[in-house]
Amino acid sequence: MKTESPLIRFGLAIYLVLFFTYLLGPLVLMGITAFNSASFPQVTPWEVFSFEWFTTLFNDKRILSGIGNSLIVGFFTVILSVAMGLAGALMLTQIWPKLRATFYTVIIAPILIPGVVLGISTLVFWDRVNIMLGLSDDSFLRNGIFLTVLGQATFISSYCMLVFVARLQRYDLGLTEAALDLGATHVQAFRKIQLPFLMPAVGSAAVLAFLASFENYNTTTFTFQDYPTLTIELAQKVRYGIDPSVSALAFIIVVITVFFALLNEVKTRRAQLAIANGAPVGAVSGSFKMPGFFSGNPAAVVLTLFVAVVVGTIAYSQFYDPEPAKAVLLKEKRAAQQLRIKALQERVRLQRLEKKLKGPDIFGSGNSKVPQPPSKSASPFGNVFAPTNLEKAAGTNKDEKKPAPKKPGTSAFGNVFAPTNLEKAAPKE
Amino acid sequence: MSSGVGVDLQDMWIKFGDFVAVREANVNIKGGEFFSFLGPSGCGKTTILRAVSGFLEPSDGKVLIGGNDMAGKGPNERPTALIFQNLALFPLMKVWENITFSMEVRGASADERRKRADELLDMIALSGQGDKLPSELSGGQKQRVAIARALCAQPDVLLLDEPLSALDLKLRQHMRTELREIQKRVGITFIYITHDQGEALTMSDSVAVMKAGIIDQISDGKSIYDDPATAFVASFVGENNVFRGKISKIIDGQAIIDTNRTGLLRGRVSSMAQGKLSVGDDAMMFIRPEALDISEEKSASDTRIIANVRHSEFEGQSYNVFMEGSAGKEMKMALTNRGETRLYDADVELTLGYDANQAVIVPAGELASE
């Protein structure tokens, strides 16, 4: 059936663009804000291209220690979850068929329980255990890392188990039997035959477990104690106002993710190519730098370009200095501000003149009309999210950073975040 | 390699819950013998093999290997090696690692293993293929690797669970000869499981025919084919024309059977049924298609049957003639191809004759459902 009329194709293209914009748009925007020198994560108005937020990020002790804690927690969670998941999956294949459904439900339940509940229960349970054992308040049972690892592993091990069950379903128990029959002990049969078969699943389960641990917030928020993880730190940071160093962190994470995704794609394609060429897989996988690395493998080309761009950007950042451009911008801003002040003074002068001419009655009605409508139409949320609101709340008013006024209606977001909105909304006198 | 280790099953029962998979099996397999269990799928033959190899404990009775009771010994403690139906080669190991796995678990050095693997690869005519993965081998090569892997463990008894069933016909026939040769060369006991009577008859010294957990007959291939003990064996092994009826006369190991549709026919009473049949008993007589021939004499007798041809076909080594006797009794005759065309048109009336010694009479019983 060939129903691919141009209209359907066009519609499909539009749909795909919308879909990917929806999926990736926020990430792209956030990535861009990391390079804007403006103190609030924003794309427009664009100020100066700058790496300063990366510097800020790497100087932020709390973020760095958060990453450190996340890595430690992730490491132990991976070990614990993979081990428990593997044990659970093996158990599931060994248990009596009648009990299997029940066992499966029990072991899958942690995924269905809200993370918050798991967090609280972990905290309460180990606290009780601690008291029962008569240990002191600073025993390891109250250690944040210990609690966080256990709390996260309760449900992450269920994820891992699902990965292992899927792989085990393709395992031929005859292989274990064959090994036993050839004189292997049960341990040898598991270690030499079944475990190597499960290795790919161990890899994916470990990655899954690490990612789930790294991004976990709801459970960790109850258990972290003195060891806040990255997500906890970010949440606390956002509470006090956000700056583009968070964007910089997000950008780095996106870059790392894309790198590994591409790397994986390259490997997959190589394996496919090897099979298509009839060559033994082992002969190809050993030699990463063979000349035919790029042949028929677009992912390899993309990966190489990607790495080149990243390396280039890092190298560029070493000697790039945004200060001159910033100084220029500052000058422009000051000039624009001067102009604005002058214009304002002019208007006040005119108004005074009018007042003198026509009297107070007409002035009142004319004045109330002017400031309100533009701000209302530009932002349906009032100006709740506007950055200067926060600045006001924080008690700092960086007037010199404010960019030149911009025409409303050009930004896709209806200028919600545009700082000029605030000026309009803010009382002028 | 040690040879001559026999396997005995004594009153062995295997039950799964209420289901009896094997009923009172008494088998005496001599050392160095090629012994086959033949039966339709689900008859319990694989269960017996698993009991011998140690994956199953018999519910009752004993398994003796070389006279030693194997109760409580796991598969890794028994002097047996099993070749699985799907071969169960380790997919992630190279061929030579597969072959020498039994040495690896005993802690042999890599050099030692490599040397032994090369010897065995020579034996199975796969020299130089040791560094391949099993997935890179053809079906027949995998088969031989599986055999080499089992032999590397130096078992006293080699168990084979329908190892040829996945191969195509030519390869299967080739592997039959090869298996038989390997067995003669290494001289150990082979226990072979199959549902293919051709395999069982060509390779085995002895064949046990099984039906639903019961061993009907244990004998050499010729006796199984020519002198079946039960109706099941007669109908399962090879093709047969069945005539049901009652015994009307018994004379010197032969009997006259009053068949339901074809009248009185003479046959030889199976040696296992000698003395068990008496006049008036329900019985069955089996005549092989190749035992029937066209009779010169047209007159009726107790070794002649009159039938009409339905259709005939050419099968290569023989012409098959399908006929209908009186009251719609269907029969098949196989005429050896000796160069002249022996196809008959439909509705031609033929008089078929047979040698009474080639018609076997057994007590009435269940037929193989094929």
Rounded to an integer in angstroms, the radius of gyration calculated over CA atoms of chain B is: 24 Å
Secondary-structure element order of chain A, N to C: HHHHHHHHHHHHHHHHHH
Which chain pair shows the most residues in contact?
A-B, 19 and 26 residues
Structure class of chain B:
alpha+beta
The total of beta strands of chain B comes to 20
Largest sheet of chain A: none
Distance between the termini of chain A: 70 Å
Q: Secondary-structure blueprint of this entry?
A:
The complex is a heterodimer of chains A (429) and B (370).
Chain A: H1 6-33, H2 52-59, H3 61-94, H4 97-112, H5 115-132, H6 144-168, H7 173-181, H8 186-214, H9 220-223, H10 230-239, H11 245-277, H12 281-285, H13 298-319, H14 323-358, H15 360-369, H16 372-378, H17 387-394, H18 419-425
Helix pairs in contact in A: 1-11, 2-11, 3-4, 3-6, 3-8, 3-10, 4-6, 5-6, 6-8, 7-8, 11-13, 14-15, 16-18
Chain B: E1 7-16, E2 19-29, E3 34-38, H1 45-53, E4 60-65, E5 68-69, E6 80-83, H2 95-99, H3 101-104, H4 110-123, H5 139-152, E7 157-161, H6 169-186, E8 189-194, H7 197-203, E9 206-211, E10 214-219, H8 221-226, H9 231-236, E11 241-251, E12 254-259, E13 263-269, E14 282-287, E15 293-294, E16 304-314, E17 318-324, E18 330-336, E19 349-353, E20 359-363
Parallel strand pairs in B: 3-8, 3-9, 6-7, 7-8, 13-20
Antiparallel strand pairs in B: 1-2, 1-4, 4-5, 9-10, 11-12, 11-14, 12-13, 14-20, 15-19, 16-17, 16-19, 17-18
Helix pairs in contact in B: 4-5
